[in-house]
Inverse folding.
């Protein structure tokens, strides 16, 4: 039997690079179809085999048996994992245990792979690219084939008949590594195999293996591809060349960026930020953009109707984004659109609190351009005054004071600084006059100051600096929202708008959003509206991005609160000595001042009134400072209590969610048990299907329960920390109040006589002031009476003049009638 002889020969061959990795991965043998015996029949792996085992890549004979294959144990020995990955021949079945459909596809792909790595026939670049596209297309449809293709290409590297065929196989390994990565079960083995060849293989293979390993490490951090690469991308990558792609910005400028088919969106963002000298790029991302153009006004032939932005995500391939753009060109367009533009866009995916502290020129410029773009697209419903001021700031930032002074020139470019929907609400002349009036007050600002002022004004809006997403209402329990709407997310909460025209509807603050989550095409919010909790559901393709933005802002708010409280506590501890209360230093100064005042009094015998008044004023200021410190401590205590209650509310919500999940799991377990008992007498296939479905549901719910449990634990930890902070603040407040009362008592005993004397003088001054106020009120009353009298006289005189006017008009009418009668006669 030729296959049996071949297996026995394989067990005694010399070491080849990769044998150690195969031997270490023996646990994966159960995933192979090793039960297919080497009987030479149709059930075996191969339809034909070579007469002898070919040497593996870069292998050198060492005289030792391979550690990957144990010695033959006789003619009945079965095939091992090492045999399956080393023996040459055409496959009639898959190497791994797959379904029948996946097995058929793997056999067809193996035939294609044999053509690509053939050492006898040369394939053209177009043929090579077409074959790689076919492999990528099938693996994208059936992700289970990824491991199979890696094992087949490893087999090809070990069974190549010549150095030329081996090199072509490793070139294909590098291309396959750029297309997709193995699953988590096989990535360790594949990495170890390639690493071993890169370290111990032949000199011509080592560079290819190292390149393949680096490429696979990058690919393993990315998601599965959505589109197969183009032939141009595959050929360029195989030759080690870079292609160029144009990335646009919101102001119409662009940047030419090099890429290959393994470049991810995150890598492209880093490269683009480096090329434009942008250091703070953590909040920026790449988007696919589709713009629709059509007739927007009777006198305007074509203008921008609308545009759609979709974030790529850090783990997406740049070639997938280009594939999305190609697919966009075949999709339907709105009825009013006459043309469409597509491309890649670089912009901020969200505005965060930390942006206010960044003064980097490029960062501020890109933020300004994006804020202006959102305003020009009509995303911010604002008043005419605010719109005119924003337009004036744009004019000052981009054109300087010259254009603001020339109203005629400003009217010609008005659409450049105002949204089209607002331009149509009033005549151009009124807008230009309004903008020019607003511009007069900011004419002295520089360009950078005008841009910063615009950003501050946008930031001050309740929904300013929001990320906007289109959505459709699915479930609205109180009938609050329309069918189609826009959802805006910023640091203040979630904002809802009517889509066309953009109209503000409602805001849910971050503290009112108790729970949220997303599915591939949906999102829900459990939020408090008018004091009651309601669940709202929406249909959108951006659910994950909305949840990510919302969670980021919640984390920012919580971190800011914790940082503020920590800073306040550190400041209090820095000011407060370990054994004395907060106000001890100020009270010591107060005691010293009092002692000095009494010493001066004994020397002089009497205190000058003005000096004593200054002393009392100083003492009052010290007392006010002490009261302010106590008020600050109380404010910190109130903030800690508020944060504690918020954390407690979230903890209760998480506990309720956890209880719901536990109930659901128990119900599903009961259903599973009942289904198993009922299915004993029924068809076994139905039982297996039900078990699999219920097991999947149980696994998902258990995962969700683990997440909720971890979230509840973190919330409990935060609650415990807040409770400790509340206790510490309460203790500090009590110590401060006690020390304050004690030192006030001491001060009062020491300065009681002097203070009582000056209090009497103060009472006398107050009484004198009261008398003066009474005189002023009397004078004011007299003035009001005289004013009322004069007003009454003037009104009487006006009434008399009106009566005289009416009498005169009556006389004139009578005279006209008499003259008309005489004329007729």
């Amino acid at each position: 039997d030729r296959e049996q002889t071949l297996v026995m020969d394989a067990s005694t061959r010399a070491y080849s690079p990769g044998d150690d990795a195969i031997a270490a991965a023996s646990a994966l043998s159960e995933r192979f179809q090793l039960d297919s015996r080497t009987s030479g029949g149709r059930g075996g792996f191969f339809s034909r085999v070579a007469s002898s085992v070919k040497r593996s890549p870069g292998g050198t004979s060492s005289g030792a048996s391979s550690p990957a294959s144990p010695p033959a144990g006789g003619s009945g020995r079965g095939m091992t994992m090492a045999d399956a990955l080393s023996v040459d021949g055409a496959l009639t079945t898959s190497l791994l245990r797959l379904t029948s459909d996946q097995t058929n596809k793997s056999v067809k792909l193996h035939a294609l792979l044999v053509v690509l790595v053939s050492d006898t026939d040369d394939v053209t670049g177009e043929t090579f690219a077409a074959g790689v596209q076919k492999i990528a297309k099938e693996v994208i449809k059936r992700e289970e084939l990824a491991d199979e293709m890696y094992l087949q290409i490893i087999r090809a590297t070990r069974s190549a008949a010549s150095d030329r065929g081996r090199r072509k196989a490793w070139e294909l390994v590098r291309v396959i590594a750029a297309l997709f990565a193995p699953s988590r079960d096989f990535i360790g083995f594949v990495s170890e195999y390639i690493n071993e060849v890169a370290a111990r293989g032949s000199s011509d293979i080592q560079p290819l293996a190292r390149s393949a390993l680096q490429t696979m490490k990058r690919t393993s951090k990315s998601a599965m591809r959505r589109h197969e690469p183009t032939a141009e991308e595959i050929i360029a990558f195989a030759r080690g060349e870079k292609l160029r792609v144009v990335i646009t910005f919101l102001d119409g400028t662009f940047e030419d960026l090099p890429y290959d088919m393994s470049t991810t969106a995150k890598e492209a963002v880093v490269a683009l930020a480096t090329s434009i000298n942008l250091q703070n790029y953590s909040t920026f991302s790449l988007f696919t953009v589709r713009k629709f153009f059509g007739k927007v006004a009777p006198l305007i032939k074509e203008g921008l109707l609308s545009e759609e932005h979709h974030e790529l995500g850090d783990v997406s391939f740049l070639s997938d984004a280009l594939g999305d753009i190609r697919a966009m060109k075949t999709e339907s367009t709105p009825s009013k659109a006459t043309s469409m533009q597509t491309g890649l866009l670089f912009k901020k995916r969200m505005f965060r609190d930390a942006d206010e502290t960044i003064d980097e020129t490029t960062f501020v410029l890109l933020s300004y351009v994006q804020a202006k773009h959102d305003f020009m697209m009509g995303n911010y419903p604002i008043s005419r005054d605010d719109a005119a001021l924003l337009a004036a700031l744009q004019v000052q930032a981009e054109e300087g004071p010259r254009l603001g002074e020339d109203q005629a020139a400003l009217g010609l470019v008005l659409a450049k600084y105002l949204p089209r929907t607002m331009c149509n609400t009033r005549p151009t002349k009124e807008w230009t006059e309004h903008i020019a009036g607003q511009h007069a007050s900011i004419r002295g600002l520089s360009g950078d100051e005008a841009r910063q002022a615009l950003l501050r004004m946008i930031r001050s809006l309740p929904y300013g600096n929001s990320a906007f997403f289109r959505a459709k209402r699915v479930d609205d329990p109180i009938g609050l929202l329309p069918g189609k709407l826009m959802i805006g997310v910023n640091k203040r909460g979630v904002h809802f708008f009517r889509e066309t025209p953009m109209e503000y509807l409602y805001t849910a603050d971050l503290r009112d959003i108790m729970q949220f989550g997303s599915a591939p095409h949906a999102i829900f919010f459990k939020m408090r509206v008018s004091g009651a909790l309601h669940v709202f559901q929406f249909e959108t393709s951006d659910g994950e991005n909305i949840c990510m933005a919302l969670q980021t802002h919640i984390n920012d708010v919580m971190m800011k609160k914790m940082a503020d409280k920590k800073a306040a506590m550190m400041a209090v501890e820095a000011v407060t000595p370990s054994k004395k209360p907060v106000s001890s230093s100020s009270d010591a100064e107060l005691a010293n001042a009092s002692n000095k005042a009494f010493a001066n009094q004994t020397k002089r015998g009497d205190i000058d009134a003005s000096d004593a008044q200054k002393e009392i004023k100083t003492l009052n200021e010290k007392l006010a400072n002490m009261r302010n410190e106590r008020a600050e401590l109380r404010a910190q205590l109130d903030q800690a209590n508020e944060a504690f209650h918020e954390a407690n509310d979230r903890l209760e919500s998480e506990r309720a969610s956890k209880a719901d999940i536990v109930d659901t799991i128990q119900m599903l377990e009961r259903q599973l048990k009942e289904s198993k008992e009922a299915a004993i007498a029924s068809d076994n296939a139905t039982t297996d299907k039900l078990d699999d479905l219920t097991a999947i549901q149980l696994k998902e719910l258990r995962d969700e329960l683990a997440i909720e449990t971890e979230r509840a634990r973190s919330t409990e930890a935060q609650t415990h920390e807040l409770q400790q902070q509340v206790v510490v603040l309460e203790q500090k407040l009590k110590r401060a109040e006690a020390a304050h009362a004690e030192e006030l008592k001491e001060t009062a005993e020491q300065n009681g006589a002097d203070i009582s004397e000056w209090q009497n003088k103060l009472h006398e001054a107050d009484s004198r002031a009261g008398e003066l106020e009474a005189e002023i009120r009397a004078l004011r009353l007299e003035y009001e009476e005289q004013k009322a009298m004069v007003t009454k006289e003037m009104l009487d005189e006006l009434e008399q003049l009106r009566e005289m006017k009416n009498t005169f008009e009556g006389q004139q009418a009578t005279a006209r009638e008499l003259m008309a009668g005489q004329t007729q006669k």
About this structure: The longest strand covers residues 337-348. The two ends are 146 Å apart (CA to CA). The chain has a mean pLDDT of 80.
